[in-house]
Design goal:
about 230 residues; five-stranded mixed beta sheet; alpha/beta; Nucleotidyltransferase, domain 5; globular; disordered C terminus; single chain; 5 helices
């Protein structure tokens, strides 16, 4: 089965194509343009580079959040459009889980940290089980970086742009047993999104387009202005 996966939750954009669990194409783009301008051309390029077409895709996947509010809406609306156009199944996955999947070291806890804006971070912890499957430890949350706590006796590897930006404020990063993931692991890979989605596919945990909404973790940044009352 050919899987098309993408991520639009942060400043970068990623697109991947997998044949079963083999990665055919995986790219991370750093562009100043809005994701709405870049995503569909990036998907077209993925198909061109792999000699495939949208007719070949049997399964779609994207990140549902947390992340950029606008980026998440672009990603999910594109996913829903693809489902409606093709009738093929899809799954949505956690952005923080996809980021954590970059870290492959065993016997560690993975602290996945995204820059949430407003001086905050999105945070979730994970452990790896048998077969490398990620298991969440606690809930995803939005919080101030100085309030990040490390309750684990084993080492923690922190990954993500939030950990990089706020390394000086996140107290656990100064502990000797903890460390930062390498620079090349700090961005979300659509191949990781696909792998998480394929786990959901095997459990028949599929996305319902009519019910699916982005996972924001907090109120939206942009609120509608109050109407001006007539005199």
């Amino acid at each position: 089965m050919l899987t098309l996966a993408f991520d639009t939750s942060s400043k970068t954009l990623s697109v991947a194509l997998l044949r079963d669990r083999t990665v055919l194409y995986d790219t991370i783009l750093h562009k100043e343009q809005n994701h709405s301008e870049v995503l569909l051309p990036a998907i077209d390029e993925a198909c061109r580079q792999t000699g495939t077409s949208m007719r070949d895709v049997g399964f779609f996947a994207c990140t549902l959040g947390p992340g950029s509010f606008t980026g998440l809406r672009i990603g999910l609306s594109t996913l829903k459009g693809l489902i409606m156009a093709t009738g093929k199944p899809a799954a949505g996955v956690s952005t923080l889980a996809a980021l954590a999947l970059n870290v492959e070291e065993p016997d560690t806890v993975i602290g996945s940290v995204m820059d949430a804006g407003r001086g905050q971070v999105y945070l979730a912890y994970y452990r790896r089980g048998n077969g490398g499957i990620l298991y969440p430890v606690g809930n995803q949350q939005a919080l101030d970086p100085q309030n990040v706590e490390d309750p684990f006796p084993e080492p923690v590897i922190y990954v993500g742009d939030g950990a990089v930006r706020y390394a000086g404020l996140i107290r656990p990063l100064s502990a000797q047993k903890n460390k930062m993931a390498p620079a090349e692991q700090q961005f979300i890979s659509a191949a990781a999104v696909a792998r998480l989605a394929l786990e959901k596919y095997s459990r028949k945990d599929l996305l319902d387009p009519a019910r699916s909404v982005p996972v924001y973790l907090r109120s939206v940044d942009a609120l509608p202005k109050k109407p001006i009352m007539p005199l």
